[in-house]
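User: Let's play a game. I give you a shape written as tokens, and you guess the letters that built it. Ready? Here's round one.
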């Protein structure tokens, strides 16, 4: 679970930092940061116990919805980026 949380956090921080740091291939690097964050979230979600999945299936926490919304906004921003 610690690895998943680190992946989500590192992916998010890298995505934010790369917005302000000039890199040679910014679009690809930002996509990699998004993929790392999503992979950490999926790893965290699928490696919970069966009880955790049953509870999460019924009522997901608002924070989980915010994380998914952030991923969607990041993906849309990446797709609409004209750089």
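Assistant: Ready! My guess for every position:
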């Amino acid at each position: 679970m610690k690895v998943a949380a680190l992946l989500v956090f590192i992916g998010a921080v890298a995505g934010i930092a790369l917005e302000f740091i000039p890199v040679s291939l910014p679009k690809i690097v930002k996509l990699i940061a998004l993929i790392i964050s999503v992979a950490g979230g999926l790893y965290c979600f699928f490696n919970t116990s069966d009880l955790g999945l049953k509870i999460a299936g019924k009522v997901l926490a608002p924070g989980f919805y915010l994380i998914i919304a952030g991923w969607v906004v990041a993906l849309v921003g990446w797709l609409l980026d004209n750089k």
